[in-house]
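TL;DR need structure tokens for one chain.
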Amino acid sequence: MKKLLTLFLTVYSLLSFSQDRKEIGNTFIKALLIDKNIEKAHSYFDPSVAGQIPVEQLKAVTEQLQGQIGGLKNILEVNNEGSIYYYYTEFEKTKLDVQLTFNESNKLLGFFLVPHKTFEKPDEKTTLKIKSDAIELNGTLLIPPSNNKKKLVIFVHGSGAHDRDETVGENKPFKDIAEYLLSNGIASYRYDKRSYSNPETFNEKSTVEEETINDAVNAANYFKNNADYKGYQIIILGHSQGAYMMPEIAKKAQVSKYIFMAGNARPLQDLLVEQYNYLHAIDPTKVPAEAVQEIKKQVAFLNSPQFNLNSPAKELPLGQSAAYWQYLKNYNQLNEVKKIKAPMFFAQGGRDYQVTEKDFSLWKETLKNNKTAVFKLYPSLSHLFIAGSGKPSPKDYETKGKVDEQFLKDLTQFILQ
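>> reply
TL;DR here they are.
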């Protein structure tokens, strides 16, 4: 189950690598410098590095370092530049960065102690917290200082635990889009997803309402009901899961326009089987046949009459609860999208193997009589709307890029028209 969940979160949910790596780095540093469990720490190295630094040598180096700088007292902050992470650490005699470099499998390629590197902090003037149910959404508000078109876009994330930039590896698609909109006189608000900032609020009874829908609606209502934003048109942009749930968000939020970026029009469980088959075909070592068979078994059970609210999560796709899946089984996005009266923009990348042209065509066919619905297909773009070439694979997400300018131009035109 854990293996299947990891596979999905890596390749479908756009899980923020930074979150996994941050935790791995914390565990490595604790094992090495606090628990003195050298064998455990050594296990985090990539084999190419582990062979050059035997356990005894690592132990000797660690003892020598601690003789010079003292014991570890506290990790003050963690920053990263792509796959290089900087743990600003307070030792008994000094403060230094523990610099860790990860490979694509989240194994360590490098471990150094270096002078502290300062990272730019968010501008407090752009930081905005919005109350949503029992938590506060931590977000970034960008308002054009001039040429303000009085349009404000709210960003809704894909599956998985995402920060406000929807960071994936070195890519930050939401940040790219928000900054482009700002340069064109369009305001925006993007926030950390609650599964990223407040994972404790998500339990076995939670559904996508708690995970995605309610926060998007509450953010929209904040701006709609706040006198400071009187006269603004509120627009909601959803990516992947955010677009998948957009019809339900629209039912409760009722804003001026809706943007669907790579939203699935088919049931999520159908996409899972398709994705696992695809990933197994391109690299059986990463997604073995057993994983494909297991997901097929779980999806078959989910779709069977035997599934009910008491079904154990371990028998269901992704290890999600029965309540979570029951909500999605009862949800029909194609029926619900026909009820939206506001203009809609549907964008799809041709190199997207997670949500494909099949889904794009279904949205288009469903809304063929809707004159306000706009559909744009971008042949060279991935699920992150970044241009690429060759056979699509998870490696696309490891390559640093920027959201495609033609898509950004089309998006801006739709918002301003």
